[in-house]
Amino acid sequence: MWPRRMGASKIIRNNVVADFSTTTESLLHLLPSDLQLPVISPIIVTENQETHNDYNIFVSTWNVGGITPSQDLNIDDLLDTHNTSCHIYVIGFQEVVPLNASNVLGPENKKVSTRWNSLIKKTLNKKSRSGQLSSKVTKSNTEGNDLQHDFRCLVSKQMVGLLISVWVRSDVLPFIRNPNVSCVGCGIMGCLGNKGSVSIRFQLHETSFCFVCSHLASGGGEGDERNRNSDANEIFSRTSFPSNKGSSSIRLPRRILDHDRVVVFGDLNYRISLPEKETRSLVDRFDWKKLLEYDQLRTELMDGQFEAWHEGPINFPPTYKYLPNSDEYFVKNQEMKRAPAWCDRIIWSGEELKQILYTRSESKLSDHRPVKAIFSTQVEVSRLACGNFYFSDGFDQISTSLEFVCMNIPLVLTN
User: Fold this and answer.
1) In the beta sheet, which residues pair with residue 44?
2) Which residues have CB under 8 Å from 94's CB, separation 6+?
3) Which residues does residue 91 pair with via DSSP β-bridges, in sequence order?
4) Residue 60: enclosing H or E segment and its boundaries?
5) Which residue from 236, 215, 265 is spatially nearest to 374, judged by alpha carbons?
6) What parts of the chain have a pLDDT lower than 70?
7) What local confidence, expressed as pLDDT, does residue 251 receive?
8) In what order do the strands lie in the sheet with 52-63?
9) Exposed, middle or buried, 400 (CB in 10 Å: 0-12/13-18/19+)?
10) Dihedral of alpha carbons 258, 18, 14, 238, sign
11) Which residue, 46, 10, 332, is CA-closest to 161?
12) Quick one: CA dihedral 394, 144, 261, 42, positive or negative?
């Protein structure tokens, strides 16, 4: 059962930091000696100014089936860069490495996550892209042509096959504080990372966000959805972020549902509770409405106990399971049974979070199709607004291995 909103290296524990060190001291010695660090001045919000800002947030999920991307893989469609312009991009992957024993029990393969992050950086920062907003995306607070602003990686974290990467437009980055990561493994023996979640939280101005990239239990048999519900409960109960330290008056949320805006996404693996033959027949007729009546996740979300969770209308074909490099669904054989299903989903909770796009992409790299969403939201702005001190101007001068580091630097200015 999904919860409702209430006010050892491979044995995954909570409060896991990002893949790289997040302390000021550990970063300073890596900076060039002649680098001049920028000073961020406070922004004073006067009585007659608005105390809310509008932002667009892009979220996508993709199970890539253990396939390492080529260096020239085109992910323009995945990130929707030709049609939309967002302030924050949150990209989640599942199975970035095959879920075999060596990957589950051995050291993380960081080469794969670096490859994905390089592709994301290249795609988001293409100078040739138009920067035009889709008619569906609000144009407020875009501050003119976003070609003037590049995207920086706030944090990237891998746990076995799970990878989450958060990218922020450079003019928005100073207003993000307290980014943290928490990993929960609920796979083999209930603790290994072949299944589970990697969650990232941060504050944008005075509003808290939590993004939960998940890979839940698989299986299309009767009752297998209970294993997925169990994984979800484990993720919500065991995910924990550090509380604020020192004398700060800011009370940081510790649990997922304590945050103002929450987005859960990933290969949630929920199936369609119909015989395979009937499922395929409805897919052939594009009868999504009838299919969704038997969708297991929709059944969970429609239950009165889960009224806090929302999902946009699904007007696209099931995202799983495809034959490799094909538009054809996997054909049943005697060894494996894989009926089409909407395994890859994005759901959300929280006031002032509005979904303005929910669709899929058509990459044929794996047996899953990617799913993407765009949200618009208002965030509360303090009358004295200042952000974390980031090495923004010197980001590209930092060593490549630290290119995807979460820079959680103390505030320069305080009230």
Assistant:
1) 384
2) 61, 62, 63, 64, 161, 162, 213, 215, 266, 267
3) 60, 165
4) strand 52-63
5) 265
6) 1, 5-50, 127-148, 245-250, 304-307, 332-337, 383-415
7) 79
8) 151-159, 162-169, 88-94, 52-63, 371-380, 353-360
9) exposed
10) positive
11) 10
12) positive
Strand 261-267 relative to strand 344-349, pairing = antiparallel
Residue 240 DSSP class = -
Q: What is the pLDDT of residues 334-389, one digit of tens each?
A: 455 689 999 999 999 998 899 999 999 999 999 999 999 999 999 989 765 544 43
Tokens standing for 387? 């952000």
CA angle 326-96-332, nearest 5°?
40
Model confidence pLDDT, tens digit, residues 7-26: 434 444 444 445 533 333 33
Residue 110: asked if its preceding bond is cis (omega within 30°), the reply is: no
Sheet holding 176-185, edge to edge: 176-185, 196-204, 207-215, 261-267, 344-349
Residue 81 amino acid letter: T
